[in-house]
Amino acid sequence: MTKPNALPWLWLSAIVIALDQLSKWWALHALQPMGVPHPVIPGFLNWTLAFNRGAAFSFLADGSGWQRWFFVVLALAICVVLLVWLARTPRRDWRTGLPLGLIVGGALGNLIDRLHASQVTDFIHVYFRQWDYPVFNLADCGITVGAVLLIAFGMFGGKPADGVR
């Protein structure tokens, strides 16, 4: 008899994908023209439509187009690894299921953009005085929050009495 695995955490991935794609649709329609800031919290947060052909911080954005397929293959490979990890994780291990669900959702949200438009739509712009963070989206939030949770639970989560995390 097989033990229940953590694959049901993919419902969280589906929610991240849906919210990401809905927010990008909104940004594409409400934040024109590209690059014009729409203040949300003056001095801290703007909605600003931007596009990224690269990865985080526009890494490889100036490539001749090969980077699109590189990031598509990379996202698919990462998702396969994380799906196998979820399949091998006990269902009650939310400290692994939750972060992996967020990361898979974020990776697939940005993958959809790369396949559909050859670029990722970004619109969340955080800044303070001279400090300026690159524009990002909800998929990026899922990936980042998931990765931070995975590290934090790994470092500080401890093991429950039954030895299952």
UniProtKB/TrEMBL annotation:
A Pfam family that the UniProt record links to this protein: Peptidase_A8
Keyword Transmembrane included in the entry's annotation: yes
Catalytic activity: Release of signal peptides from bacterial membrane prolipoproteins. Hydrolyzes -Xaa-Yaa-Zaa-|-(S,diacylglyceryl)Cys-, in which Xaa is hydrophobic (preferably Leu), and Yaa (Ala or Ser) and Zaa (Gly or Ala) have small, neutral side chains
Record keywords, A-Z: Aspartyl protease, Cell membrane, Hydrolase, Membrane, Protease, Transmembrane, Transmembrane helix
EC class (word): hydrolase
UniProt entry tagged with the keyword Hydrolase: yes
Transmembrane segments: 6-28, 66-86, 135-156
Membrane topology field: Multi-pass membrane protein
EC numbers on record: 3.4.23.36
Superkingdom of the organism of origin: Bacteria
Pathways involved: Protein modification; lipoprotein biosynthesis (signal peptide cleavage)
Subcellular location per the Swiss-Prot or TrEMBL entry: Cell membrane
Positions of the catalytic residues: 122, 140
Family: Belongs to the peptidase A8 family.
Summary of the function given for this chain in its UniProt record: This protein specifically catalyzes the removal of signal peptides from prolipoproteins.
NCBIfam families xrefs: lspA
Name this protein carries in UniProt: Lipoprotein signal peptidase
Underlying gene: lspA
